[in-house]
Amino acid sequence: MSTQELTKKVRELKELKTMAEELAAEITAIEDEIKGVMTAQGTDELSVDVFKIRWKAVETTRFDSTAFKNAYTDLYCKFTKRTSSKRFTIA
Fold it and tell me: How far apart are CA 83 and CA 91, in angstroms?
């Protein structure tokens, strides 16, 4: 691939990423509008046409590795491993 072609691809990628960010912001705005309607109606579930919309609290349990590391440093070091990966960025 020539330098010109590569430059064109990078510009295209940057433009697509910008479009993706704009779409993500638009999606978030619409979701927030719908959540506002649900909050105003005091409901966590709505039926609209063929769609069922739910906005409910969900509880999860996650392992707190920082607290574990502070409390059991030796065990933490014994059971952790270092990994390596490549990060793709364009500045």
Answer: 25
Tally the residues of the chain: 91
Q: What sign for the dihedral angle of Cα 54, 56, 61, 66?
A: positive
CA-based nearest residue to 80, from 90, 89, 71, 69: 69
| DSSP string across 46-74 | EEETTEEEE----------HHHHHHH-HH
Number of structural domains, the chain?
1
Does the pTM surpass 0.70? The reply is yes
Q: Which domain holds residue 52?
A: 3-57
Is residue 44 within 8 A of residue 56, CB to CB? The reply is yes
Query: What tens digit of pLDDT does each residue of 47-72 get?
Result: 999 999 999 999 999 999 999 999 99
